[in-house]
Write a structure and sequence with these properties.
Layout lengths: L6 E8 L6 E6 L5 H13 L6 E8 L3 H10 L4 E6 L7 H21 L4 E8 L14 E4 L3 E10 L5 E5 L2 H7 L3 H15 E8 L2 E8 L13 H9 L4 E7 L2 E6 L5 H9 L11 E6 L2 E7 L2 E2 L1
């Protein structure tokens, strides 16, 4: 379930694919479902005839209902929240937030198991294990991202086991769909805190259920951070898998972030504490603890 009620999450079940694929579009848009399908079609190169079911968090508009009926004729279409009449959106959003909060609390009392992306440094002592895991490059040759099932026990301990290539083959889901689901799970729990000291701005990213540093692999991260830090190159510090600090490269805090990362006491596992440059053109690994570039 999507926590941002202003964004309508649309899920498509494809024939022959175990895991659903998903995309989002502005909830109020009359063509939200059509927008979401355009994203899926570009990303996965699939035809409308492959869709066997459609779930939209919000009831499709009349225009979207016609679109679904035309393009997904045999697909079952369901939704969770009723689409309000014009002028009633804020009330509907408030009610939806209340429902989501209750559902979240119920989930917290039950299982906390979720699939999340995990960063792997090529210089990590464990890097050899990555060959057995489906993974994608974050910084080619230097930093990758794989997936793991993470669960918090009732006693507060965290258990994690990585998804292997064999398990992926058994699932039968496209690797892109699996990572999309992992990124969505990660994004739902992220918390950003913006701190200002004069002209310097620092964004601290954490996550209650861990692995906040994996946010560096999220599509569209630069655009989101630029809203707080402005355009231009940014410095992202990953002192451990569960924290990320971001500042402008020309900020007076850049050296402080770098020092905190390179002096991090974190015991190296999959991730070696790292400093990266994040810009419109992508990511560059600048330094790692013990390995400076």
């Amino acid at each position: 379930m999507n926590d941002d009620v202003t964004q309508n999450l649309v899920v498509f079940q494809l024939k022959g694919v175990d895991e659903p694929v998903l995309a989002s579009a502005p909830t109020r848009a009359d063509d939200a479902v059509e927008q979401a399908w355009a994203q899926i079609r570009r990303r996965h190169k699939v035809r409308a005839s492959a869709v066997s079911a459609v779930f939209s968090e919000w009831q499709p508009s009349a225009a979207d209902q016609k679109f679904v009926a035309k393009h997904f004729r045999k697909a079952e279409c369901t939704y969770s929240f009723t689409r309000p009449v014009p002028g009633e959106w804020e009330r509907a959003f408030a009610e939806a937030r209340s429902v989501l909060a209750e559902a979240h609390e119920a989930r917290q009392q039950e299982s906390t198991e979720e699939v999340l992306p995990v960063l792997w440094s090529a210089s990590s002592p464990r890097a050899g294990l990555l060959d057995a895991l489906p993974h994608l490059p974050v910084v080619p040759g230097r930093l990758s991202v794989a997936l793991a099932v993470v669960a918090r026990t009732p006693h507060g301990k965290v258990g994690m086991h990585h998804i292997t290539r064999h398990q992926h083959e058994e699932m039968g889901a496209p690797i892109e769909a699996m990572f999309d689901a992992g990124y969505s799970s990660l994004a739902r729990g992220l918390k950003s805190e913006v701190r200002r000291s004069g002209e310097n701005v620092l964004v601290s990213i954490t996550r209650e259920n861990l692995l906040a540093a994996s946010a560096i692999a999220l599509p569209g991260l630069y655009a989101q951070l630029s809203a707080h830090l402005g355009t231009g190159d940014l410095i992202a510090g990953l002192p451990c898998p569960d924290q990320m600090f971001v500042v402008r490269e020309d900020s007076g805090l850049a050296d402080t972030v770098r020092e905190q990362v390179l002096d991090s006491p974190y015991d190296t596992t999959e991730l070696v504490p790292s400093v990266l440059r994040l810009g419109p053109g992508g990511l560059e690994l600048l330094a790692e603890r013990g390995v400076r570039t």
